[in-house]
Amino acid sequence: MRRMVAGTLLWLAAAGAHATQTLDVLHWWTSLSERQAANSLAGALATEQLAWRDAAIPGGAGVGAFKVLKSRVLSGHAPDVAQLIGPTIGDWAQLGLLLELDDVADDQDWQDRFFPTIWKLSRYSQHVVAVPVGIHRINNLYYRPEVFAEFGLLPPRNWAEFERVAAQLQRAGITPLAQSGEPWQVATLFETLLLSETGPAFYRRLFRLRDPADWQDIRVRRALERLRSLKRWMPQPVAQRSWDEMARGFARGDAAMWVMGDWARGELNSLGLEVDRHFGCTTVPGTAGMHLYSVDTFAMLSGGYVKLRQQEAFARLAASVPVQLAYNRIKGSVPVRRDIDPAQLDPCSRQSWQTFGRGDAVQAPSIVHRMATDEAMKDAIIAQVYRYFSEDQIPAPEVQRRLAAISRALK
């Protein structure tokens, strides 16, 4: 890992020496596969005589990167390009800090080439203010095919099947379900359970209407109770491990199943594992035909427009078909364009891309990964879910009351 990072830095330094301009890019991609994906974007920039000056900030779900971005903007040292996600794009655009990319979008016909949800996400006040680079699906269940084959098991389609599979695995001395105790990873598992219990329409309603009464719904209670009941299938105690550590553990065979976004698939690929050979990929029970999504997106900080040409070149390249295919193949996500050839995607990616393409009826924006709501509500939900998961004496109805109060206060 150290050799790879060192090699990356040398390559970037060499690229910078020959390029006429550099772009300072702030992001939170620090795992093995994320670095490889960033390198693919840097390589595309190099073809335009532009060097990617890396400003990677460690931290799952981008918590650290957002703090650094705010600090740099306030101190007058804003990056040229920053990774932003979901509603936060509008927040930054409202402050007049983001470059408008209308000319690039018009030239490349983004409105027709992008999925409608993606096109909407990239705009604020009728202007394009961000370039989306990949769509992640979060409601994935990964499993070990050789373990399932040994015991004659099939991937579970519903929770009754999951319980039977988990019980059989546990009796055989195999940990059924991998899980980290990091708050954002616990909440990521919860949002997949919430989607499983409610379906996309009610899931979206929780955040679009912010009716406190919706959080008292029996389906929310069932999702909470299932979150706690799944603990019996996890390693004990549930330790706080980074998601890429979890990927390495899953690759070693520490557990038979794992619920995580498809960045995990990119990481497993980077570790030498192949989908359908070394690991299987299906949907979380009860979410077949649904797409819990997050979108990797970059915005250009205006900064007096001194690097307008270079920033527009970044946006043009990042949205192009070749770069989209190369980047997403590494990252584990899928292209934001609907005009690609799906035959170029592996089976898991193809299913994700085709499902997302069915539109709003099957799509659900991630809470944890900044697609469904603002930072304040996201952080409050993660805190309540994590506390409930960690402290067994807290009843589910109490958490529902707290979530309703949060919704009421932040409406």
UniProtKB/TrEMBL annotation:
SUPFAM superfamilies, per database record: Periplasmic binding protein-like II
Major site of localization recorded for this protein: periplasm
Family annotation (InterPro entries): Bact_solute-bd_prot1, SBP
Keywords: Signal, Transport
Record flagged with keyword Phosphoprotein: no
Cellular compartments annotated: Periplasm
UniProt similarity note: Belongs to the bacterial solute-binding protein 1 family.
Functional note: Part of a binding-protein-dependent transport system for a sugar.
Protein name: Probable sugar-binding periplasmic protein
Originating organism: Chitiniphilus shinanonensis
